[in-house]
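Summary for the lay section of the report: proteins are chains of building blocks that fold into shapes. Here we show the chain for Anaphase-promoting complex subunit 7 and then a coded description of the shape we predicted for it.
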Amino acid sequence: AASMSVVEHVREMASAGLHSNVRLLSGLLLTMSGNNPELFSPSQKYQLLVYHADSLFHDKEYRNAVSKYTMALQQKKALSKTSKVRPSTGNAASTPQSQCLPSEIEVKYKMAECYTMLKQDKDAIAILDGIPSRQRTPKINMMLANLYKKAGQERSSVTSYKEVLRQCPLALDAILGLLSLSVKGAEVASMTINVIQSIPNLDWLSVWIKAYAFVHTGDNTRAINTICSLEKKSLLRDNVDLLGSLADLYFRAGDNKNSILKFEQAQMLDPYLIKGMDVYGYLLAREGRLEDVENLGCRLFNISDQHAEPWVVSGCHSFYSKRYSRALYLGAKAIQLNSNSVQALLLKGAALRNMGRVQEAIIHFREAIRLAPCRLDCYEGLIECYLASNSIREAMVMANNVYKTLGANAQTLTLLATVCLEDPVTQEKAKTLLDKALTQRPDYIKAVVKKAELLSREQKYEDGIALLRNALANQSDCVLHRILGDFLVAVNEYQEAMDQYSIALSLDPNDQKSLEGMQKMEKEESPTDATQEEDVDDMEGSGEEGDLEGSDSEAAQWADQEQWFGMQ
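The coded shape description reads as follows.
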């Protein structure tokens, strides 16, 4: 056998995965080629450039890789010009040469990958768009579909996803892509029906498609029922993805207790689970379980710090400890890792809002709504921004829109009522809406809280106490216990009020308002001389500042970090 050329050695090492070795050798050979252009043929130069670029790509040096891939494609152009002119002298000699040339389409795909890593989506789309559609491989169509979707070019995105399914009818993520772009479930199912019918044990797939069609139309109740029916099938029992979806759906439906249960189940089954853990962390933080949130954050950072989730969980811990500038920085870091992270956008938006930067916050909530048009909490965040900046009219328009698009359910009714409560003119309307919501879901906490607020304004304390006791019959919730405490104080039932505040604090030791309620009562019971009382207040003030905000120097340090992450 003839001895191998040096370029063949490079190719062998590349296919053997010896990237660092390829990088050194190809770098030296390219310099030789530059100093003596006759040394290698155009096809050899093309190969050297591609292998060199591949090794740069492997080292995550994306900008450098792109420039070498671009040079490689220019070589390829020169190559196809020269090869056309040369008369073929016996095909045998020329075929092995062309067979082992790295594919031009693969090079373009790698370039697109570099561009997405560099956050240059337009360039990525341009390079893949330039490939004639007949030559597009499934992974090119999948990447294009995702890029189009992100850029808001929905029709092109749908076409590309359908192309993936035509080539690979079991591409489930492409199916989810189509459903998220409001393609009807029936149409999507028809594209996979032949495979479903020809393969045993796949009969669940049409139900699976139906379930996620409900998810993407925002029909949480039917989505939950459909996924539960899949989950009960013995063959799909204990599937982590299904449990994660269920947890997320319970969360969207405002059923936090069940959501936490399902997340815990999923986590028990897969200790390395990352997806959805940001929502789980947020729920734990909302319940005041800050120690659990901290542990979850540490665990996730051990699994991967290249995902948004651990940063979001850690940010929720900061946010609920009232350290907003730190939460802001962690949210920004999460968005940098994954610009599609809805939870990161909500965290950063809430932090900005609480720091008084309402206009910036609004931008983040709008982006969250664009990414998750069926998630009520994105709208809630935006509406809170409008109310914080006294734009009651804009809040009203938004709440009415949500009510129309997501349908009249306990959640949308309550959201609309919340806005109505802000305007003296619409108090009666708020009352009607809340009663409707509570008829549909008597235990929906947000509705109970708002109804109690209304009753408190009207000083109907007995009604309020009855409402809260009824709501607490089947569930325990810090805020409900605390409000019940406030109402009991109003009717002079001090001992029982004290019990309610204690229960509230046992559920969430950080609940400031329950502490205040207790302290107020203690003061009323033991009226000491005025001077001492002032002291207590002073202590409280300084303690709160010190604990929750962190020292000024720390805030300054985070402010530096913020600039570093281009958030100013």
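Put simply, here is one thing we learned. The two ends are 65 Å apart (CA to CA).
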